[in-house]
Amino acid sequence: MLLAAGRGERMRPLTDTTPKPLLNVHGRALLDWHIAALQRDGVNALIVNTAWLGDQIPQHLDAYWPALADAGRLRYSHEGRDFGHALETAGGIARALPMLGEAFWLAAGDVFAPDFVFDAGRARAFAASDDLAHLWLVPNPQHNPGGDFAFEESAPASGTGRPLNVGKDQPSAFPRYTYSTIALLKAGLFRAPWCDIAPGNPDGVAEPLVALLRRAMDAGRVGASLYEGRWTDVGTPQRLAQLNAEWMVPLSRC
């Protein structure tokens, strides 16, 4: 599932006329970079949620990825059309859950991570585990110096371990990292006791994901990996401009 419903307030005025995930990095929309990587790694069934300027997203993607669209492998959850607003991450996933499998990839449409590998072996191992989520964490960028989660690394060779529900104002013996907004999730995370949104979110409840993740962390049901490849949260016009100036990535890579 690719998240593409947000308003992108900090990206204004660019997002007054263009959804943030359709902003270009080196001639390709942010969403297209993700889809290219997913296709490269064998993920060929996608759900995209929409809200702000939502009609633009299927218009663009169906034209850019006609084989996926024609095969019915590119589907949409139209939160704006159905409810008049975006449902935030947990609410949006709950809404799309009937279209998703029991385990699935999640990626935010406003991050640039062209070299991230959507590893099929990792996805299979996750599906067979008791974990409800597996997050990829990145070194803290300048705009988030305190990070999001403490991280207890259990396998240094592979950079895997457990994220910890430790607040930014709480001491921790473990280093803190930023959530990349790329994850593997299970449908069970969006059911009781972790989530109280009705199946399919028929009432359009808007709810963030972080509270569900913290509950599951406290129960030892969330894993994490460190990702130290290229990654940018394209949250402001300045970051977008800097990214286009610095990351000279050949389009032929994907």
Q: How would a crystallographer describe the biggest sheet? A: 5 strands, mixed, barrel
The CATH first-level class comes to Alpha Beta
The tally of beta strands, per DSSP, is 13
Could you state the order of secondary-structure elements as H and E?
Answer: EEEHEHHEHHEEHEEEEHEEH
Strand ordering within the main sheet: 8-11-9-10-12
> What is the residue-averaged pLDDT?
92
The CATH H-level superfamily is Spore Coat Polysaccharide Biosynthesis Protein SpsA, Chain A
CATH architecture: Alpha-Beta Complex
Overall outline: globular
The tally of helices reads 8
Backbone structural class: alpha/beta
Rg computed from alpha carbons, rounded to a whole number of angstroms: 17 Å
Helix content: 25-40%
Total number of distinct structural domains: 1
| Residue runs with pLDDT of under 50 for 5 or more positions | none
- The CATH topology name reads Spore Coat Polysaccharide Biosynthesis Protein SpsA, Chain A
Strand content: 15-25%
Distance between the first and last residues' Cα: 19 Å
Descriptors for this entry?
254 residues, five-stranded mixed β-barrel, 8 helices, two-stranded antiparallel sheet, Spore Coat Polysaccharide Biosynthesis Protein SpsA, Chain A, alpha/beta
